[in-house]
Design brief:
29% of the residues lie in helices and 16% in strands. It is of the alpha/beta class. Strands 3-2-1-4-5-7-6-8 form an eight-stranded mixed beta sheet, sandwiched between helices. Strand 6 and strand 7 form a beta hairpin. The C terminus is likely disordered.
């Protein structure tokens, strides 16, 4: 998994510019730490991920290979996001532009997902709002934890008293009480319940049944509007 991160990053930088990767979770902290998060995501095998904070779409491009569907939300539409996702072949990513925080909350409440990645408003209040609308899925990954430029993320994560926290700066994971984790990597400090191996998608009889083919979600990237109240569709 570790070789995949610099490969994707270098291809995006070569095709566009290094500005595409500026502050992106795809490169923040280095290839090794990002690869650990990607490997954990692969182990958890989420069917649907919601990302709060698209920016230029670089991390959504990575997420596209780790889930059937990725919804990515932002208050601002990057002029590069569509190009980045198309270049990466991320056809299962559904970019959504919301008008304001209330519209974002309504949309998150309406979506069905089993893992959330929060990388939007980095104030403590903003992170708390995004968490409030995503925590029901049981697994939340935060970006910019322990980054001195974003104290709000660290303060909010450190304030959580329920569930299990796994800190691997600049990332941090939250697992709801009763939700099993992967087998931890030795570099990740863990607080909370004991960790257990996770297949989240256990099949009856001890073997995996074939996955049904994923139906592609509508997206403004292929000209299909996907609108709810408060969305600007392109």
């Amino acid at each position: 998994m570790q070789h995949l991160i610099p490969s994707l990053a270098s291809r995006l930088a070569a095709q566009f510019s290094h500005d595409i990767l500026s502050a992106s979770a795809l490169v923040h902290g280095g290839a090794a730490v990002v690869a650990r998060q990607a490997e954990r995501l692969r182990t958890l095998r989420p069917r649907t991920i919601v990302e709060v904070g698209t920016r230029h779409g670089a991390f959504a491009a990575l997420l596209s290979g780790l889930a059937d569907t990725v919804f990515t939300l932002d208050l601002h539409q990057s002029i590069h996001a569509r190009q980045v996702l198309d270049f990466a072949g991320a056809a299962n990513v559904v970019p959504l532009i919301v008008a304001d925080d209330p519209a974002k909350g309504r949309l998150l409440d309406a979506l069905d997902f089993d893992l959330a990645f929060i990388d939007g408003d980095h104030s403590r209040e903003g992170v708390a709002l995004d968490f409030a609308h995503t925590r029901r899925c049981g697994i939340v990954l935060f970006h910019d934890y322990a980054d001195p430029g974003f104290h709000g993320v660290t303060e909010f994560v450190d304030s959580l008293t329920h569930g299990t926290i796994v800190r691997d700066a600049p990332f941090a994971w939250w697992f709801a009480p009763g939700v099993a984790l992967w087998v931890p990597l030795s570099t990740a400090p863990v607080e909370g319940a004991a960790l257990t191996p996770l297949p989240l998608r256990e099949r009856e009889g001890g073997s995996e049944a074939p996955e049904p083919a994923a139906q592609r979600r509508p997206s403004w990237r292929d000209g299909t509007p996907f609108c709810t109240a408060g969305l600007r569709c392109r």
